[in-house]
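Protein Record: Sequence and Backbone Structure Tokens
======================================================
Tokens: labelled as protein backbone structure tokens, with as many entries as the chain has residues.
Question of interest: how does this chain fold, as expressed in backbone structure tokens?

___
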Amino acid sequence: MSYLIEVSPRDVIASRFAVSPLIVTHHAHWVLSGVRAPGVWRSWAERMRGPYRRLAAERPALAALTGLLRQGRYNADFVAPPPSGVQVPFADEIAVVRATPAARAHEELARNLEGMPRMPGHVMDVLFAPDVVDLVADAYQALWDETVAPFWPRFRAVLERDVIHRAGRLATYGWAAALDDLRPKVRWRPDGVIVVRAAGPDVTHRLGGRGLLFVPTVFQTGVGSYLEHAWPYAISYPARGTAAAVATPHGLGRLIGRTRSRVLLELAVPATTTQLAELLGLGLGTASGHLAALRDAGLVEAARAGRRVLYQRTDLGDALVAGRSPTG
């Protein structure tokens, strides 16, 4: 099956990229429960598994939801709906969850359970309790507070860097360029259709000039879609730079120093000074100093994007990382 999303020229202008603390928290649940591998966030996962186990024991809804998490199949949408805007704080997102009618939550949970082995009675009691919406919201509030919020500046830096990069490609080169690295799960057809692979019969959605909401996340490995309920239609996807750790080329650290090597490696995707500082755990002044040195050496360059200054590797920087001459 595929979701077929018909796109008009107006949809390019109307489409937006959003950062969602709630969706990141939802995907953190996948990782900490062991359903999804942590990837580059292994050290974070190892540090947070103790607090997660305590929360799962204290919050029955968290443990109950763990049994519903499944790859490539329907998962209840009300638990982590797409954000209503570009910069929506966690408090506002969890308020939307709390506003979900219990009947709708029960309907989605029942659908989530289809085709799965029957859950134990105590789990079903939680999932179909009259106050299940509040139980879920309280559980995710606690999960956010203890495992995600302390690391949010770093996670947000990864997500914002992806947004800047992908939004620029969409505006400059169009949908094919913006979606290229999401293949084979998502692809662009020349006839103006975004194809999102899923299970079941093909379903066509028309954006009608309202655009599409793209939501990057740090813990996701595949692509998720929100195309069944009221607007906004959204796609969640793994942010660039979170799929796998990048190895430092042999000798690069000895040549330019370990920290500058890390900065140069990170700039495979453009980033601001602030984002690099958060990503690498550096002070803002320290990050700025390393960028200045790399720029003086011709390894990175700066370009203004709106109010931001983005740094990226030059051809010489790419060649140094790849261990080849600038001409290839």
In short: The beta strands are 2-6, 16-17, 186-189, 193-197, 203-206, 213-217, 224-226, 234-238, 300-305, 308-313. The longest strand covers residues 300-305.
